[in-house]
Write a structure and sequence with these properties.
Blueprint lengths: L25 H13 L3 E6 L13 E7 L11 E3 L5 H5 L7 E4 L10 H5 L10 E5 L3 E5 L5 E3 L4 E5 L2 H17 L1 H13 L2 H10 L3 H19 L10 H12 L3 E7 L12 E7 L4
Parallel strand pairs: 1-2, 1-4, 2-3, 4-5, 6-8
Antiparallel strand pairs: 5-10, 7-8, 9-10
Helix pairs in contact: 4-5, 4-7, 6-7
Amino acid sequence: MYPTSLSSHTMVTPHKGEEAIEDYELDRVIEKVERARADGLKTAVFVGRRNSQSIPQEEGWVWFTLDSKLKNKYDCETHLQVDFDNPESMAKIHHLFNKVVVDLEVIKYSDTPWDTFQPLLAQEPDSTFISEATAMLGSSYSELPEYHPKKGTLTTPIFEETHLKKNAIEKWKKTVGEAKAEEEYKLYVSVNPDLVEELGEECEDEEELEEVLRQEFQDYILERENIKIEKPNHLPELYRQIQEYLGSFYEIVELKEGLFPYLSARRNHWVCHSPKVVT
């Protein structure tokens, strides 16, 4: 254990629903980090871990947890209660750690995860930053995929598969001819009276029924003709852009597959070494 001084400390106000720990002082924990470094030990922080959760035990290393909340009745001597969204609070712990590990699911709650957490690293050649590969994948009404490497996010067109199917059908029509394609559609409708009746009860008018029937016919043709629709994999491009962005902070940026370090979960993750600039 590292001794603490009686100098002035910043008291941390607990979040709503959290009980106050009267003797918790953030500056005292920061002082413990600094003392460990002065004693020649390596320091590491597990971002997003509460003081009630386990941390690695490694010879020559002193591990700390970092989260905006503090659990009462648990040891808090190595816990940094800091609000990630408060730049002033985060600045107090910049450059203090030889290793920063961001726990699973944490980066999706930050608009700028790399900018927020990478400054915690000591600017030394062997300093290492580890986090999940992406923050969040979603969809939108945009016509093209949108990449946000600074946030670690990707949004793909919500109707991308619909457009791909439509393009595939248009190619099929050009192959057989418009007249033959329309003849096929009318035949499909005539031999599926039960389907027409069922859909007719769900549709508001003839125009909507026509649209739905043509969608059903489209799927039928794609299956009959064995036309495969493969949605583009946009992840490699997101990875490329994130790697390029992280490359502005680190000399070495590696995308790893398999088990996330110190955890049993399998997640793609970044392992970055040798910070260039820490702000």
